[in-house]
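Example 366.
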Amino acid sequence: MKITAAVATAPETDLDIRELELDEPRPDEVTVRLVASGVCHTDAIVRDQWYPTPLPAVLGHEGSGIVEAVGSAVTDLKVGDKVVLGPASCGVCEQCITGHPQYCVDFYAYNFGGTRPDGSVAFTQDGEAVSSNFFGQSSFASYTNVRARNAVKVADDAPLELLGPLGCGIMTGSGAVLNVLKPGPGESIAIFGTGAVGLAGMLAAIAAGATTIIMVDIVPSRLEFAKELGATHVVNSREDDAVERIREITGGRGVSYALDTTGVPPVFSQMTKSLALRGHGALVGAAKLGTEAPFDIGTLLVSGITVSMVVEGDAVPREFIPKLISLYERGLFPFDKLVKTYGFSDINTAFADSESGETIKPVLLY
Ligand code: NAD
Ligand code: ZN
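Predicted structure in complex with zinc ion:
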C-alpha cells in the first residue's frame, strides 16, 4: 500500500517527507496506522550515523496507533486494537526468556539493522529499499508493519496521542529507576540531565517515594522546570562542582542512587564520584561507539559502588508500559507535562526544538 513517511537521507540533513510503498504484514506482524510518534534523541543520532543504520531510512521509535491488519499467525491482537510500540527482541534467546528483552542477543539486528531479521525491508521507493524496522517499528510513517510481539495493547479509551514516548524515552528513564536502581521511600537520588529521560527518571523516583531528588544540568530553564515538577534540589554544573554540591546536600555521604542521562564522559565520572558507599549508579545516555570515560578504580574500589549500563529501562514493554499508564491515570506519573505536540509535517521543527532544548518531548500527530 502507498504510505507517507519522513525519510532520513544523510547526516545532519532534514528528513524528507515522501510517498513510499509498504509491503504486506508477515504472518507474525500487524499493520499499524500511526496516530502519533514521539521524537527521541536517538532518532537524531541515528540520522547523524552514530550508529550505522543504512540510509535512506524511516526512523521513529515511539509510535502509537491502531491495528489495521493482522498477519495469519497473530492471535493476541485484532483489527481496531489500540497499541503502543516498543523496541523489538527475538523472544527466544536467554535474555528474552529470562525477562530482559532489551539485552536480546539480536537486539542490534532487530532494532538498528534497517531490515527484518530475514533481510527484507518493509518500505520501498520506486523499487529501491528504504531501511525499515527501526526499533522494530519505523514509526515516522502513516502506516508500518511491526511484529505483534513488540506492540503493547492499551485500553480502548487510552489517550494514544500521548502514549508513544512510553515506548522509549519515558520507559528508559523511569525503567532505569524502577526496574534497576529501585530507590525506596526516604532515599536519595541524583539525576544528571533534565531532558525527557532524566525527568521521567525523576517522576519515577518521586513515585517510588525518594525524598532527596537532586537534578543536575547546565541549562537554567530546564533546572527551573525540574524544580516545578518536584526536584528537591537542582545543581547547575556549569556554575558549581556537581560532586561537591551533592555531597553538601547529603551531609557528606553522597547519594544512594544516581542516573547519567547525558552520555558525556566527565558527567559519568561525576556520577560515580557522587555515590554514597555501596551506592548504585546507572548510565542510560548514549555516546558514540568507542567513547571512554575516566573511572578512578583506585579510589572507587573501596566504595563498594555498583554501576549498571541500562538499555530501555531493562523493561518488558507488555508488563511495564501498562504500569506506567496506571501510575499516570492515578496522577502519580504526570509525564504529559514533558510533551509538546506538532503536526507530522513539522517533523524537522520538532527535531530542531528537541536539539535546542526548547521542547523536552516532542510528539508528532499524524
Ligand atoms: P535531552 O537532550 O533532552 O537531555 C539531555 C540533557 O542533558 C539536556 O537537558 C542537557 O542540557 C543535559 N546535558 C548535556 N550535557 C551536560 C553536561 N555536561 N552536564 C550536565 N547536563 C548535561 O535527551 P533525552 O531525550 O533526555 O535523552 C538522553 C539520552 O538518553 C540521549 O543520549 C539518548 O540518546 C539516550 N537514550 C538512551 C536510551 C537507552 O536505552 N539507553 C533510550 C533512549 C534515549
Ligand atoms: Zn529513543
